[in-house]
Specification:
This protein is mostly helical. The protein folds into two domains: 418 residues, Sodium/glucose cotransporter; 89 residues, no CATH class. 73% of the residues lie in helices and 0% in strands. Helix 5 packs antiparallel against helix 22, helix 7 packs across helix 16 and helix 18 runs antiparallel to helix 19. The longest helix is centred in the middle third of the chain and has 49 residues. The two termini are 35 Å apart.
């Protein structure tokens, strides 16, 4: 499947890349040290933070992964999208005040304050692995698939290296500010391109939704699937997806880092809720086109080819450049985000504690070197994803086995004052042992059959049991180690604003919209 670019398409792509590089260059002077590189000086408003949250998330799991999954088994895959809204409500109410009150730079830093340094380093190390192996490599693979659609002679590895090199360049130059502001530009292009494809898909079908319904298996148009469904059974939707979502939105450094750069708690909360609102629209502009593609481009050999195939089929010359820029924007938004967060983790959690004399300027240098190293590593790993059953499957399967133990510490560990550092550490160890056993029995030997969306629930429960048991068996934590801030977190910065800007009112509205969406497509 080969696409040909016109001179106008190429000109649009060149202008887009010059704009992104220009933003990075313009911010070099404002990026003087580690705090500027990693947190943009903590001066960002709610709108750029919220748009950046959305843009960083939608790369590898939407245009390529979500459309492909929808093509293969229907719109229920959007459960990962609408579930983000209630998860972000919980994040805004509970964790954000704790993060910003402590003025932390990395999420693992919070675990050290609540528990001890063992938990911080454990979480930081595994976050590095998921950022590079899962998030960055997955995004580079998605981008390489798109590039190969236009330039079939380019291999997966060279294409991944090209994307990584460009994203790494402006990220190292302008730091998080460059990442956030380029994300705003890229999000506009991404949403515009997605809306255009969705409109053209619907136009090809005569703007007749009943025709889509009549020609599609009803199970493909339902957000809620039976308990025995092989793709996303409803127990997995209610158990596993919220756990994975809480990890992603509430504890994953490359997402949370944007909210840490907000100029106030109110801005951070508004940004989170705004991102949740944007996620509700993904069903219409990125998932439904994947289902409609069944009639437009049938019999594709691989679901990950759906979106490039729709571009080839629907777009006239001149518009290809805009949508291709949107595709590359989506992929690059995740790449720049994960590169910056991985560099932050290495510098703040591993280098600075062992080099107390490391000043802010040198921390910035170390961070830029780390960006370069991780850029190369992720690009080398990206081609291996071709051996999995679709990009979306790779992403969710990897996270299901890796991240659930940490959700125990950020939920039970925050709400329960009696939880101890020893209980937290052995909870991580015990839960990951259970996860490893499940992986061997289910994925490697096939001797035990459990759907991967249920794995997070089993692992979470195992971690919670260990956490409570070990904590109760030892002495209570010291007062400075106790959380005990649930009520204070809920009430932080809620006075002195109009009711329509009160995060509690906005949260209720977001939850109502989410419920209406699920009921409409149940």
């Amino acid at each position: 499947m080969t696409l040909h670019l016109s001179a106008l398409d190429i000109a649009i792509l060149v202008l887009y890349h010059l704009l992104v590089l220009g933003i990075g260059v313009a911010l070099i002077r404002r990026t003087k040290g580690g705090d500027d590189l990693f947190l943009a000086g903590r001066r960002l408003g709610w709108f750029p933070v919220g748009v950046s949250l959305f843009a960083s998330n939608v790369s590898s799991t939407t245009l390529i992964g979500l459309a492909g999954a929808a093509y293969t088994w229907g719109i229920a895959v959007a459960g990962y999208e609408w579930m983000a809204a209630p998860v972000l409500v919980v994040f805004a109410a509970l964790l954000l005040p704790l993060y910003l009150e402590g003025r932390i730079t990395t999420v693992p830093e919070f675990l050290e304050r609540r528990f001890d340094r063992r938990c911080r380093l454990y979480f930081s190390a595994l976050t590095l692995v998921t950022n590079i192996v899962v998030d960055t490599a997955g995004s580079l693979f998605a981008g390489a698939m798109v590039i190969r659609t236009f330039f079939p002679g380019v291999g997966l590895l060279p294409a991944a290296f090209g994307l990584a090199l460009f994203a790494g360049a402006y990220t190292a130059a302008g730091g998080l500010a460059a990442v956030v502001y380029t994300d705003v530009v890229q999000a506009v292009i991404l949403v515009a391109g997605s809306c255009l494809i969705a409109f053209l898909c619907f136009a090809r079908l005569g703007f007749d939704w009943s025709a889509v319904v009549d020609a599609t298996d009803p199970s493909r148009l339902s957000l809620i699937l039976p308990a025995d469904d092989p793709h996303l059974p409803w127990p997995g939707l209610l158990i596993g997806v919220p756990i994975l979502g809480f990890y992603f939105w509430g504890t994953n450094q490359f997402i949370v880092q944007r909210t840490l750069a907000a100029r106030s708690l109110r801005d951070a909360r508004l940004a989170s809720l705004f991102a949740g609102l944007l996620k509700l629209g993904v069903l219409f502009v990125m998932v439904l086109p994947g289902v409609m593609a069944i009639r437009i481009v049938p019999d594709l050999p691989r679901g990950d080819l759906v979106f490039p195939a729709l571009i080839r089929e629907l777009l006239p010359a001149g518009l290809l450049g805009i949508v291709l820029a949107g595709l590359i924007a989506a992929i690059r938004s995740s790449v720049d985000s994960t590169l910056n967060s991985a560099a932050t983790l290495v510098t703040v959690d591993f280098i600075r504690p062992f080099a107390p004399g490391l000043d802010d300027r040198r921390a910035g240098i170390v961070g830029r070197v780390a960006i370069g190293v991780f850029m190369l590593l992720a690009a080398m790993l990206a081609p291996a994803i071709a051996h999995f059953e679709g990009l979306f499957n790779y992403l969710q399967l990897a996270l299901a086995y890796l991240v659930s133990p940490f959700v125990v510490l950020f939920t039970l560990g925050v709400l329960w004052r009696r939880g101890t550092a020893t209980g937290a550490f052995w909870s991580l160890v015990g839960a990951h042992l259970v996860s490893a056993v499940l992986f061997v029995l289910d994925e490697l030997t096939g001797t035990f059959d459990i759907h991967f969306t249920l794995v997070p629930g089993v692992v979470f429960l195992a971690g919670a049991v260990v956490f409570v048991t070990v904590s109760l068996a030892g002495p209570a934590p010291s007062p400075e180690r106790r959380a005990g801030v649930f009520r204070r977190a809920l009430l932080a910065e809620v006075g002195g604003v109009p009711r329509w800007r009160d995060y509690r009112v906005l949260s209720a509205g977001l939850l109502a919209l989410t419920a209406a969406l699920v009921i409409a497509f149940r």
